[in-house]
Amino acid sequence: YLCDPTCTFPLQEIHDLFKDYEIKYCYVDRNKRTAFVTLLNGEQAQSAIRKFHQHSLRGKEISVQLQPTDALLCITNLPLSLSIEQFEELVRAYGNVERCFLVYSELTGRSKGYGFVEYMKKDSAAKARLELLGKQLEESTLFAQWMDVNQLTTNLIHSKCLCVDKLQKDCVDSKELIQAFSLKYKPVFCQFAQDEDGGSGDFAVVEYESAEQAESVRGAMDGVTINGRRLQVSFCAPGAPGRSTLAALIAAQRMMRNNRKGLLPEPNPVQIMKSFNNPAMLQMLLQPQLRGHAVKPVLGGSAGLPHLINSAVGPPFLQLNKVPQ
User: Which ranges carry the RRM domain (predicted)?
Assistant: First the structure.
C-alpha cells in the first residue's frame, strides 16, 4: 500500500503511477489517506517499493510498503509432486485468496514441500488453518500455521529447520539421531518432541545454520532407516528458531488430537426430532413404555397409542414441540 499525508488523488492517478505493473486490485481510502494496490506477484510488489518509496507525488513524499496482513498461512508437509495449480485448488476451497505460491529449491528447481497462502479475510484463513491442519493428502499429513508477512522475502522463505518424522517412540537415546544428522553439518538445535506424559514422541526438529545446509541434509536423510524405522524428513515453516518450531508442532499435534476427539458432537434438538423418522430410533425411545411401565393418560391423547414423552428426550425437544394454546 502507499500512504500520502495529503492523499486526495483520484483512482486514475494511482493507475497511472503503476502503469508499468499489472494491477489486480486498487482502492483509495480517503479517511486513512492511503491507497491499497494489489499487483500480479511479489516480485512486482518489491519492484514497486524500490521505485516509489519516498517518491515525490504532487510535491509530497509518499511511503510505499507491503501491506500488513493477519491472514497469511504457511502450509507444510505437502507432497513434493503437488503442482502450483493443485495447491491453488487446495487453498481456494476456504475463501478468496490474495496470493499463494509454493517454495522451490534454488539449486534443483523442485518443490520444497511447503507453500504460503494469503486470504482476503482473516476468517477464511482461520477456517483454512483449522481444516488443513492434519488433513491427509496422499501419504502426507499437512500442517498449517500463521505467518508474518515480513517472512515473504527471497532470503527468509527458505527454512533452516527440518521435521524428522516416523521415529521410534520413547527412544531414550537420541545420540544416534544427532550423529546421523551431523554427518554433513552440525545442527544448532536437535530435540525430540515430548509427549504429555513426559515420554519422547515420534518426531524431532533439527535446525541448521543456513537454509542451504538444511536442504542438503534433507536430501541425504529423507528415507534413511534408523533403528528399523524409515525416516520422513520435511521442511518446517521458515522464520522461527528450532525450539519455537518444535513447540509449535507439538501444539499443532495436540490440536489435531483434540479435533479428532470431537468428531461426534452431541446431537441438537432438531437432529433428535429428525431421528423420529428412523424406526430403530423410535423403538429405542419407546422401550420404557413397551416394557409395561405404567404411564398416566395424556389429555387429548389416543387410548391406543403409548405416551411418547421419554426421559431420553430433553427439555429442548419438548419446547420445540409445544403446541400454542
Answer: 71-149, 160-238
What amino acid is encoded at 204 in this protein?
A: A
Q: Which amino acid is at 23?
A: I
CA end-to-end span of the chain: 62
Of 263, 295, 316, the one marking the end of a domain is 263
List, in sequence order, every beta strand (DSSP E) within the chain.
2-3, 23-29, 34-39, 56-57, 60-61, 63-64, 72-76, 97-104, 111-119, 136-137, 140-141, 143-146, 161-165, 189-194, 200-207, 225-226, 229-230, 232-235
Same domain, 108 and 50: no
Tens-digit pLDDT profile for residues 80-105: 999 999 999 999 999 999 889 999 99
Boundary residue ending a domain (24, 46, 64): 64
Residue for grid cell 487453498: 91
Integer Cα distance of 133 and 257 in angstroms = 11
How much is the pTM? 0.62
Please return the burial class of 71, using the count of CB atoms within 10 Å of its CB with bins 0-12, 13-18 and 19+.
Answer: buried
Instruction: Quote the CA–CA distance of 97 and 235 in Å, as a whole number.
Output: 24
Q: Which domain holds residue 132?
A: 69-157
Count CB atoms within 10 A of the CB of residue 76. Answer: 24
- 170, 104 Cβ separation under 8 angstroms: no
- Residue 83: name the closest of 107, 105, 99, 101 by CA: 101
- Total number of domains constituting the chain: 3
**Given a cut of 80, is residue 135 above it in pLDDT?**
yes
